[in-house]
Amino acid sequence: MTAAVIPCFNESPTIDRLVRHLRRHLDMIVVVDDGSTDETAVKAKNAGAIVLNHDRNLGKGAALQTGLSYVHNLGSEWAVTLDGDGQHDPVDVAALLQCAEHTGARLVIGNRMGGAETMPWLRRFVNRWMSKQLSQCAGCPLPDTQSGFRLIHLETWTDLHLSAQRFEVESEMLMAFLADGQPVEFVPIRTIAGTRRSRIRPLADSLRWWQWWRTMRVDRRTARRTVSGYGNRHPTPSSKPIS
pTM of the prediction? Predict the structure, then answer.
């Protein structure tokens, strides 16, 4: 079974539409309301999602931990994660599932950089800079390390003991999969331009990411694996999707 997990903080303008569209592709949609002060939880529930609540904002990493643990405990083998701001197209879920089936990847990441001009300039700049640093560390090209649109093999994920609580979770997860020798793939996806301003705090978030990155480089100097570049191939859609 594959479930969707959506970490959210004040995403009431977009979450109901996202949940309804996702229900066309996946049976279980879990929204983790990370201390929102708007109607995110109500709108997600009315749209058909299971809603898990944090009493206060704990960060994206903590919200993902809550949601992924929940669906894993219910028996899901895979989880698709998406951001709640509507930037990801649920139609692309099929591409991630097909990639995992064709390649055996345990982590599939949606690569937005083919349409990076639709991203806010600050998010685009930070993403490219961080992806460059991680690519150099891993010894292989990692085109979109900050993408929140991912397909995660949950049994593998549970063995990695991740600890990041906020935005650095995407980087930590990717490098942990690589360091563990797990196959990772990137798939081109569409990015939908949004109206919400980026929540990246340039100084605080960059400093925290930099601190995490320095620690990771010391702890994982052997994290050098090859990413095969599935995104450059065009396989025939599978007749046996993961379910």
Answer: 0.81
